[in-house]
UniProtKB/TrEMBL annotation:
Keywords: Hydrolase. This is MoxR-like ATPase. Its EC number is 3.6.3.-.
Length: 337
């Protein structure tokens, strides 16, 4: 009996290795295709792709003009997903995103309500400048991002599968922005900070985008294949040491868990969703790099994008000029030390 079980395990392992190798080749093609349109920004592209490969949502934060919207549109094309874009503005209403019911009247004079789906009924929703809409409209996405359905007039409406929200956000210091509610921030698997490009990349942007022809991306995989890769990532083994590293990191970021720096500087820390996000994203990062199992290095590399939007500093820490990134860097240094 044990021999049979061992043989089965070996077969399963071979199948997973073969599937991972196929997925790795396709991910490499996706990266190359995105690279035709988005120059430099390797970390931004990697983190955004990891969020999608993990089956989650990502929040891209940066000043206008850094190709955040273009990256999201390019990913939709390359991954073969149906996509729609919503430009968030202060006067946007929840029904502009979810859809609404209208009254129809037939030839006999009978009246009935008919639901007209909003742009949320897509596989990849680009929520552009999400923090320019009011909190009421921002929260329209809450149920969809967690439960993958919405409720309109008491009726449940399921969303297409897969369903991903890639939102762009302007820095909160800018005029006309509203901070996202903490509950909604927690729905984003990762916050991806988009900085200014390196000199070489910016030179390439100048040369490639101001001529008569501009590069375009083509589809590499489709929605069904993306779901298979997402399923494969969930099957990848995670060692006990990596699980312990996730738990130690997440718990050390919460006040009241014995970390003196955290107790002093952090008002509230990440919940269990942060650990789930680290677990999924570490697996995806391993596959992205051509490995079959995540390492502790993956956890440390993902600490900032996974944790930073799930924590808040005390007033005293903010007054001293400290940032959430500083706190996370300190926790990572402790964990490595």
């Amino acid at each position: 009996m044990s021999v049979m079980k061992g043989a089965t395990d070996a077969t399963d392992e071979k199948a997973i290795v073969a599937a991972a190798e196929n997925a790795l080749a396709e991910i490499a093609l996706v990266r190359a295709e995105v690279g035709k349109v988005i120059f430099g920004q390797e970390t931004v592209v990697e983190q955004t792709l990891l969020a999608v490969l993990s089956g989650g949502h990502a929040l891209l934060v940066g000043v206008p003009g850094l190709a955040k919207t273009k990256l999201v549109a390019t990913l939709g094309t390359v991954l073969g997903l149906d996509s729609s874009r919503v430009q968030f503005t202060p006067d946007l209403m929840p029904s502009d995103i979810l859809g609404s019911e209208v009254m129809d009247q037939d030839a006999a004079g009978h009246r009935s309500f008919r639901f007209i789906p909003g742009p949320i009924f897509t596989q990849l929703l680009m929520a552009d400048e999400i923090n320019r809409a009011s909190p009421r409209t921002q929260s329209a996405l809450l149920q969809a991002m967690q439960e993958y359905h919405i409720t309109v007039a008491g009726a449940r409406k399921d969303l297409p599968q897969p369903f991903h929200v890639l939102a762009t956000q302007n820095p909160l210091e800018q005029e006309g922005t509203y901070p996202l509610p903490e509950a909604q921030l927690d729905r984003f698997l990762m916050q991806v900070d988009v900085g200014y490009p390196e000199l070489a990349a910016e030179r390439q942007i100048l040369l490639e985008t101001t001529g008569t022809a501009e590069a375009t991306a083509r589809p590499v995989i489709d929605a069904a294949r993306l779901q298979q890769i997402q399923s494969l990532i969930r099957q990848m083994p995670v060692g006990e040491k990596v699980v312990d590293a996730i738990l130690d990191l997440v718990r050390s970021a919460r006040p009241g868990n014995g970390n003196a720096a955290t107790d002093k500087n952090v008002a509230w820390g990440p919940g269990p969703r942060a650990g789930q996000a680290l677990m999924l994203c570490a697996r995806a990062r391993a596959l992205y790099d051509g490995r079959l199992a995540p390492s502790i290095d993956d956890i440390m590399a993902l600490a900032e994008p996974v944790l930073q939007h799930r924590m808040a500093l005390t007033f005293a820490a903010r007054a001293e000029g400290m940032t959430v990134r500083d706190v996370i860097a300190g926790l990572v240094k402790q964990a490595k030390g």
